[in-house]
Amino acid sequence: MDRAQGALRLPDADADTSLGPGPFGLPGCPPGTVELRGRVAAFVRERVMPAEPVLDAGGPAAHAASRRLRTEAKNAGLWALPLPVEWGGQGLPLSRYAHLAEAEGASDHGPAALGSGSLLDVLMLGRHAAEPVRERYLHRIAAGELRTCYAMTEPDTPGTDPALTATRAEAGPDGTWTLHGRKWFITGAGDADLVTVLARTGDDLSLFLVPTSAPGFRVVRELPVLGVGGQWEIELDGVTVPSDHLVGERGKALRIAGERLGLGRVLRCLRWLGQAERAFDLMCVRARSRSRSSGPLADRQLVQQLVFDALLAIRTTRPLVYEAVTRLEAGDDARVETGLAKVAAARMLQQVADAAIQVHGAAGLGPDTALPGLFRMGRAARLLDGPDELHIAAVARRVLRDHGGAT
């Protein structure tokens, strides 16, 4: 794949396969990446995590905190690590960035603070957008000056069946396109500058890049997920965009979306690993520091069972995720590997966060730890980018098809 697609390469043959410090280690981490991962992890731990309450609350204070974090990341040389060099990124291949994505993902705000949150949009537009659109927007997106989001799911149609998309785009005599419809559960739509919209163009489906400042674009409402915001519903009521805002060829939306979803699912899995490690660390600290009259929680066999099971879940999920990373970077068909990784990582995060809450007791349900947010993400993970059932059925069909001639 070329640089505009992410410059993905196989891992180096002499990659360091030794385990690093801590219970998880860094198996397969390429040379030179261990130190960089440490810097990213420190930035997320020391800069991003303390700002989470402000960032979660939204509003002017959150915007100011986001700007400060972006500036600090750029000054630290950690900005836009996986984005293509031609658009202002540092061009790290997936084999290296995967290990950093875990560290970034320990906080929901890590990817945005470090400039990698726009990776999917930059790769998609870099490959498929018209040249005027690339020149107008991509440098500013990569620099964090413009915020983007992706709108596919609709209120009245199942998100797993894009063929039922009701949002429509009508071609005008002057080459423009006019869009009508609603989308929902769109991450970041409340303060986005650009949104990529899946719409019906006659009998086929196409993608359009829509400026949120265009007349007829409206944010309908915020949609709290288990009580916390960040997802949005939007309306497109006669929004008109120029012809060059068609992303890729007309009717090719599902192919482009497929490219995006494959990498996007793997990135989510990597970030969920980072969040699970964070929950695990919190659980171990609590078990060692919390005492009862009979001794510390760490001496309780049931607590030890929770710790063991959580560590087992993390350790057995990581190879599945990195197998998907390797196949994606090699340009191989990674649908089975991605499906396995996505289901395993979602279940793993929910299990580890739940165990950590159990060890914390009532404190794990309150606002003094990150555990409620980590558990909320673990539950949502089983629906994001397709529910577990979709991936289970798709993987099983492919496996059974490939074994059709077996006896």
UniProtKB/TrEMBL annotation:
The keyword Flavoprotein applies. Residues 35-145 form the Acyl-CoA dehydrogenase/oxidase N-terminal domain. Pfam families: Acyl-CoA_dh_1, Acyl-CoA_dh_M, Acyl-CoA_dh_N. Its cofactor is FAD. Residues 255-400 form the Acyl-CoA dehydrogenase/oxidase C-terminal domain. SUPFAM superfamilies: Acyl-CoA dehydrogenase C-terminal domain-like (SSF47203), Acyl-CoA dehydrogenase NM domain-like (SSF56645). Residues 149-236 form the Acyl-CoA oxidase/dehydrogenase middle domain. The keyword Transmembrane helix does not apply. Residues 1-21 are annotated as: Disordered. This is Acyl-CoA dehydrogenase family protein. InterPro entries: Acyl-CoA_dehydrogenase, Acyl-CoA_Oxase/DH_mid-dom, Acyl-CoA_Oxase/DH_mid-dom_sf, AcylCo_DH-like_C, AcylCo_DH/oxidase_C, AcylCoA_DH/ox_N, AcylCoA_DH/ox_N_sf, AcylCoA_DH/oxidase_NM_dom_sf. Belongs to the acyl-CoA dehydrogenase family. Keywords: FAD, Flavoprotein, Oxidoreductase. Homodimer.
